[in-house]
Amino acid sequence: MSDVFAALADSTRRTLLDRLFVKNGQNLSDLHDGMTMSRQAVAKHLHILETANLVSVHWQGREKLHYLNPVPLGDIVHRWVGKFEDARIAALTDFKQQMEDASNSSSNSKPQEKRRAGQ
Amino acid sequence: MPDNDIATIETRASSGEPCAPDFVYTIFIKATAEQVWNGLIDRDLTKAYWGHYNESEWQPGSRWDHVRSDGSGKIDTRGRIIEMDPPRKMVWSWAFDADAELPGKLSRVTYELTALGPDTKLTVIHSELEPGSPMDKGIREGWPAVLSNLKSLLETGAVLSEEQWPGRSSA
Q1: Contact call for B170 and A113, based on CB within 8 A
Q2: pTM of this structure
Q3: How would CATH label the architecture of A2-71?
Q4: What is the CATH number of the domain that holds B70?
Q5: Quick check: B165 and A79 CB within 8 A?
Q6: pLDDT exceeds cutoff 50 at A116
Q7: d(CA A31, CA A14)
Q8: pLDDT at residue B104 is higher than 50
Q9: What residue ranges of chain A are covered by domains with CATH 1.10.10.10?
Q10: Looking at the 3D structure of chain B, how many domains does it have?
Q11: Per mean pLDDT, which of A103-107, B51-55, B157-161 is the most reliable?
Q12: pLDDT for A105
């Protein structure tokens, strides 16, 4: 768990996670694009995130793709944030409701845009 | 049985529709690959941590159902088994019950298990989702919670509850 905190302590690494949240499955070049540091420096940050299991790596042919892995963050929340269980159950209940609404009406609004706007 | 012919299993990618980027979740569990595999497919174990039980013959081509464990028998999600290689890899299609016969609505889930000494690395890849659909949104919240709960069940014999956390080691 200390790996996770060390990984999150750096603003560049938090930015990389933010970018993966917006667009999952990026390679090193994608993630380096627009960053004011060397490619090697970005690669090093990604390696730290990977070691902390905050980033999952998936090889597509010879291309190394990076994915946001929120699983260790859940461990932190479980340990220190009370009532998380209730919130999660509420989230699952909402999810179930959304699923049912969605299967009842196929002509839905645009959920993705709604989600982006709510960020 | 033509129904069980895996060559007929089409998913969203084969329908030519645009797919959302994959989600790749990774978790390390202190259990053997066989135990983790069993935790993913066993009816009683899935029922204990998933709020649903998974029911299938678990053969390539066979149907699987994700059934609510509240006794209603309602199937929320279902699909077919595309590939089985226990305890290393499983590929299955995944859609809401009402959409499960529509290839453009069928996403694809892959489990990959790797033994690492006494631990197992479990990777879940969810791909071929319809961009922006309720399923695309829902799995972002769903999988991490399911995997944390599976880990807790296999490592401690109980699903997560607040009381357990203070006593846990920070490893």
Answers
A1: no
A2: 0.78
A3: Orthogonal Bundle (1.10)
A4: 3.30.530.20
A5: yes
A6: no
A7: 12
A8: yes
A9: 2-71
A10: 1
A11: B51-55
A12: 62
Is B171 a domain residue? no
B167 inside domain: no
A71 interface with B at CB cutoff 8 Å: yes
Domain contains B108: yes
Measured in angstroms, the CA of B57 and the nearest CA of chain A are apart by 26
Q: Does B162 touch chain A (CB under 8 A)?
A: yes
* Phi and psi torsions of B27, nearest 5°: -140, 145
Q: In DSSP terms, which residues pair with B64 in a beta bridge?
A: B56, B79
* Res. B85: pLDDT tops 90: yes
Nearest to A3 by CA among A55, A70, A48: A48
B143 and B126 in contact (C-beta within 8 Å)?
Answer: yes
Contact A16, A32 (CB under 8 A): no
Distance of residue B51 Cα from the nearest chain A Cα, in angstroms: 10
Domain range spanning residue B99? 2-158
Tell me, yes or no, if A114 comes closer than 8 A to chain B by beta carbon: no
CB environment B144-161: b (16+ within 10 A), e (fewer): bbbbbbbbbbbeeeebbe
Give the pLDDT score at A85: 57
Q: Which residues of B touch A75 (CB under 8 A)?
A: 148
- Any B CB within 8 A of A5 CB: no
